[in-house]
Design a protein that fits this description.
By secondary structure, the protein is of the alpha+beta class.
Length: 63
């Protein structure tokens, strides 16, 4: 069984640059990659720190 794990994405507010990159765009590219190349995976789990600041707005953007 193939399981994909994505961890510690540390998302901030939309279009915000953190660590020299737009992490929201990087996550979108990561998900596209998983969908295109690992569509046979049984499960994809997001673990660790999902947002950088833990604010409600950051979690809303994660949706």
């Amino acid at each position: 069984m193939k399981v994909i794990q994505v961890t510690d994405v540390h998302l901030g507010r939309l279009r915000e640059i953190r660590y020299g990159a737009n992490l929201n765009e990087r996550l979108d590219r990561c998900i596209d990659h998983i969908n295109q190349r690992h569509s046979d995976a049984a499960l994809c789990i997001f673990t660790g720190d999902l947002t950088d600041d833990g604010e409600a707005d950051s979690y809303a953007d994660l949706k």
